[in-house]
Design brief:
CATH class: Mainly Alpha
Helix content: over 70%
Structural class: mainly alpha
Number of domains: 1
Number of strands: 0
CATH superfamily: Tetratricopeptide repeat domain
Shape: globular
């Protein structure tokens, strides 16, 4: 199946989008989590949903940036994403810039971009999830707990919820 067919039919999963770049979530798990969130009257957003909101041209450029990033050509990927940001402040573009900086061990810049993604979409579970991980890796327990708790409030039954609970527990033990 051609990429244009996949995009037209909406057969897109996070694995396809950011397989080597970021966390991947099973679409069925996402559907269940969204249903649970609706029952709690909470609107949550993930990378798949944001991707589907992009125009076809933006999707193609975003896919190019993820592919280039997977090949560790971070400067080229960053340039594409920043060009995309000139016309669309999609949290997905900031999220991807966060990953690129994380891969380059530039954690302060990664944090900046993940927070920027959240500033545009406060209930972006993927961004809260990775930000809690980055803070945990950066040994910033106060913020790791805040982000992990936000993730759990939005998606308490998510398949990565137990990892976030472990971050919280380990951070509390350190204090």
């Amino acid at each position: 199946m051609a990429l244009s067919d996949i995009l037209r039919k909406g057969i897109v999963t996070s694995t396809f989008l950011i397989g080597l770049v970021g966390p991947t979530y099973n679409t069925i798990d996402n559907k269940l989590e969204f249903q649970r969130a609706e029952a709690r009257e909470i609107r949550i957003v993930d990378s798949d949903k944001l991707y589907l909101e992009l125009s076809l041209n933006e999707r193609l450029k975003y896919d190019e940036a993820t592919k280039i990033s997977a090949n560790k050509k971070y400067d080229e990927a960053t340039k594409i994403l920043k060009e995309l940001l000139l016309n669309n402040n999609s949290p997905l573009f900031f999220y991807m810039l966060g990953h690129i900086n994380r891969f380059q061990d530039n954690l302060p810049e990664a944090i900046f971009y993940f927070k920027k993604a959240i500033s545009f979409e406060p209930n972006y579970i993927d961004a809260h999830g990775i930000l809690s991980k980055v803070y945990f890796e950066f040994e910033d327990c106060k913020n790791a707990i805040i982000e992990a708790e936000t993730f759990l409030r939005l998606a308490p039954d998510h398949k990565n919820a137990e990892v976030k609970r472990q971050y919280i527990q380990e951070c509390k033990q350190k204090s």
